[in-house]
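Message: Study each token:
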Amino acid sequence: MKRLLFILTLFFVVPSFFLFFLVPLAYAESGDLWVADYQGGTVSHLQQNGELLNKNADVAFPTQVISDPTGGAWVLDSGHNRIVRLTDHANLFFTITGFGSLVAITSNPATQGVVAADASRGEVISYDASGHEILRLKSFRVPKALAVDKNGDLLVADKNGLKKFSSTGEQLFFIEQFTDVSDISLTLDAGAWITDETARKVIKLSKEGKILVTVTNYRRVADLDSTSVGGVYIFDRDNRRIGLLNDLGQDVHTIVDLDLSNPKHLAYDRIADVLWVSSSDALFKFDNKGKRLAMITSVKHPDALTVEPPTVTGTPAQAPKSAPRPVTPPVTPRPQLPAQETQENVEQEPSQEEQEEVSVTNQSNQSNQTQEAVLQPTEPPTEPSRQPVIIGQTAPEVPFEWILIPAYWLAVEGIIFIILVIILIFILRKRWR
């Protein structure tokens, strides 16, 4: 009987060990890619090998795509002046509308929501995961770049400078010298790398706003993404040069690839330690030495892109099981661009009404330097234009077994593993005696 128990114990311990320790490692692999096709009006979800998983064509001229840790993505749909929330299957989940001139978005790890910058109204608005407004900051002078750290603290760059706010809207610091910040990339210690195109500088800041590093040997850095060791990848638009800097701002290497003729945007995968670059007609993948690992052409005109973080906890975004939200008629897409045109060719000047709104905002900002943070009540906003709605269709629910069974299975296997190890130790002690 003891021998039978011993054999059965080994039979269960080995697979339990495999499932309990190795399965979580599989779930923690680095994520896939979300890629926006500005000219084609699509957002694609790709595996790292370039295989197309899903595609969404409900957008017009997408200028930003931000992945969500729980699955899915947020898209800045500039053609319709709205934010689109996509599920992990790239289906339209809901939209957020009512902006004057939406110019930038970023995810909020603290709330699993999104933060948006409205340039014409001089506002920055934070939304929760369901698209309900939770915080509104006013009196900015054309905000254009955003970043939110894991604590919910917010960095906002406008024409007056760079400001940092707490998750409740309290201003933490203000750096006036940076008036043309085009991109912000947070470091793991809650600091940030920023690029000021007018000053032609790349600056590294501490989380308190202290300048740690200043790099001046680049002309016009239009995009950057910090690495897992404190450095940063940069894209110099004037020189079409992509380089890697270490945590001290020193050059490590420059990426040289003859096929990479017109780079557009960067996305760094901190788990796999690889860099993705979008160009006019392909995606490129490079290792940390600058060696090309892959060239992917499954997206016709790749532009903005983001790496999906590992979904170790949480579940992918999906349509609620309760009654669906009100459905509004689909918005007629804007006409698509000819193939030879790019985003830079079609950017419109602000209308006269928007310029007047910006002027009023500027005057208000000059007369009152304090920021106005308006915390919204816990109830969803009643303004119809601010209510997120599902347009056209609801997303199909993700099969139950793909979301919940791995977590339950790991928990059960963990308990079995511990019990059987105790039994095994007991049997071995008996045999040794």
Residues 18-29, 312-354, 356-408 have pLDDT under 50 and may be disordered. The two ends are 17 Å apart (CA to CA). Residues 155 and 329 are 36 Å apart (CA to CA).
